């Protein structure tokens, strides 16, 4: 059983717990969770590291009001090593020998550009190009000091069709070597931009109330309203 399968199985197990019971995420065997992040856009994310991975690799698993929907692994440079969309489960991996690898280290120096390929297990391949740049501004969110970035990126098919693109602001934590979503203009390839904001609101650490809770806390009523009206809300960010 792969690690992603274990993550998904854990998420499915949560779904059968009685609604009145407190639901928490349990990392796969050999993995240790170190932080839960409650974000705008009705998302809660759990960050963990696993013994079998290369040093510096980190996992994130995301839940919305319906349950688990996404998981990803990044390396020490915050490259998108692999990710999993759920229901159906689709794996996407970084293709070897990227033209311009993403580099968190370069970003800490002021700016970083990137160009790399992605491949899904469905056979679909795409190319991602873009940049991240520090704005020089810092924000304190729930007692955590984060540096602001501005970014642009686009993902195109091998034939050159734009699949998605985005621009906006995000946040980074230099010591954690993590990105966090921010206010973004998102285009799903149809040429129309929509505003999305998945900014972090609360950081929860081991031993604190709400650590590993799978219940998102912020903006869920607004999302339910949009769904009821037939709107399509995409939980997206440049965040790997």
Structure description:
It is a single chain. This protein is mainly beta and 240 residues long. The chain has helices spanning 3-15, 104-108, 220-228, and strands at residues 31-39, 43-50, 58-64, 67-74, 80-85, 90-94, 111-120, 125-141, 144-157, 162-173, 178-180, 183-187, 193-197, 200-204. A hairpin with a 4-residue loop joins strand 5 and strand 6. Residues 12-21 and 224-236 have low confidence and may be disordered.
Q: Which percent band covers the strand fraction?
A: over 45%
Shape assignment: globular
Question: What is the rounded Rg?
Answer: 17 Å
DSSP helix fraction: 10-25%
How many strands appear in the DSSP assignment? Answer: 14
By helix and strand content, what is the structural category? mainly beta
Profile the largest sheet: 14 strands, antiparallel
Catalogue the unreliable spans.
12-21, 224-236
Could you give the order of the helices and strands?
A: HEEEEEEHEEEEEEEEH
Distance from N terminus to C terminus (CA atoms, Å) equals 24 Å
Mean pLDDT: 87
Q: What's the number of helices?
A: 3
Give structural attributes.
240 residues; mainly beta; 14-stranded antiparallel beta sheet; 3 helices; 14 strands; 11% helix; 48% strand
List strands and helices in order, with pairings.
Blueprint: H1 3-15, E1 31-39, E2 43-50, E3 58-64, E4 67-74, E5 80-85, E6 90-94, H2 104-108, E7 111-120, E8 125-141, E9 144-157, E10 162-173, E11 178-180, E12 183-187, E13 193-197, E14 200-204, H3 220-228
